[in-house]
Amino acid sequence: MRLRRMGAKHQPSYRIVVAESSSPRDGRFVEIVGIYNPRTSPMTLRVDAERAAYWLKVGAQPTDKVRSLLVRAGITEGKLSREGLEEGYVTETPRRGVEPNVIPAGTRADAAEQATA
After folding, report:
1. Same domain assignment for residues 84 and 51
2. CB proximity list for 94: less than 8 A, separation 6 or greater
3. Last residue in a domain, options 62, 90, 108
4. What stretches of 7-114 adopt beta strand conformation (E)?
5. Is the same domain home to 28 and 55?
6. Hey, is 36 helix, strand or coil?
7. How far apart are CA 18 and CA 59, in angstroms?
8. Contact at 8 Å (CB) between 51 and 33?
């Protein structure tokens, strides 16, 4: 599973597709399972959860970016990057033996939490 670039010059949007590893980035694909547009505010992310879960179950390997998008969509479990944490996204409970990520006070996530309280 990977992103397929769409859109005009300097205005990218992406489709989340299932494709064989040997096919070109914007070339042949098996199925479209979602869309991602980082240029909208907030970003647009739509994923067909049923089809994405099916492809993961049969062995499709998502790229790092697609994996993080699937975590944000709630389809798979995993940790988000520090950038995702600062934007207020929630991560899973860390595995045994792994220290949880600590966000220093005064970050955007902390300010957003205080604003909602």
Report:
1. no
2. 79, 100, 101
3. 62
4. 13-18, 31-37, 44-47
5. yes
6. strand
7. 11
8. yes
- Note whether 2 and 57 are same-domain residues: yes
Q: Is the peptide bond before 12 cis (omega within 30 degrees of 0)?
A: no
Q: What's the one-letter identity of residue 80?
A: L
Residue at 44 is within a domain: yes
| pLDDT tens string 68-111 | 888 888 888 876 655 544 444 444 444 455 454 444 545 555 55
Q: pLDDT tens, 6-38?
A: 989 999 999 999 988 888 777 788 899 998 998
Structure tokens at 100: 């949880």
**Domain containing 100: what range?**
79-117
Report d(CA 90, CA 105) in Å as an integer. 16
Three-state DSSP at 95 gives coil
User: What is the number of residues in the chain?
Assistant: 117
